[in-house]
Amino acid sequence: MHPLVTRIRVPGFFAGEDNARTVQDIAFNAMDEFFQLIDNQLAEQQWWYQDQWSAMDAYLYWCFWRVQGAGYPVEKFPHYCAHAQRMEQRPAVKRAIARDEEAIKILESEGLLFIPKRIIR
After folding, report:
1. Alpha-carbon distance 62 to 84, whole Å?
2. Ramachandran class of 90: left when φ > 0, alpha when ψ lies in -120 to 50, beta otherwise
3. Which pLDDT does position 116 carry in this prediction?
4. Apex CA 106: angle with CA 87 and CA 90, to 5°?
5. Where do the domains of the chain lie?
6. Is 47 exposed, middle or buried (CB count within 10 Å of its CB: 0-12, 13-18, 19+)?
7. pLDDT per residue as tens digits for the range 15-41
8. Which of 71, 58, 60 is nearest to 9 (CA)?
9. How buried is residue 4: exposed, middle or buried, by Cβ count under 10 Å (0-12/13-18/19+)?
10. pLDDT tens-digit readout, 46-62
11. CATH 1.20.1050.10 fits 2-109, yes or no
12. Rounded to whole angstroms, how far apart are CA atoms 72 and 27?
């Protein structure tokens, strides 16, 4: 999924700004298959490996978080959305998000924050 995440998040990097929308559209369509597989897996269980949290759940959350922030329609996958909400309740994830928010403030104050150009749909 990682290659698709980057094509959703920074599509202009791969084909220039003139073709960014096309790259992102292709990545959105390709990501649907993966998100549906994940949504199906999480329909009957709390974590990827049933009741056992694993590093796979962390990776799934990272993918979810990255594409959600780029406009990918995560709401089409309610079980994956519920998984993300469970992840956000974990103390370690709360700490990581807080650190990320602090780093963003620092980068912003130093004029170094990179914000990918968002494609308007």
Report:
1. 9
2. beta
3. 78
4. 10
5. 2-109
6. middle
7. 898 999 999 999 999 999 999 999 999
8. 71
9. buried
10. 999 999 999 999 999 99
11. yes
12. 10
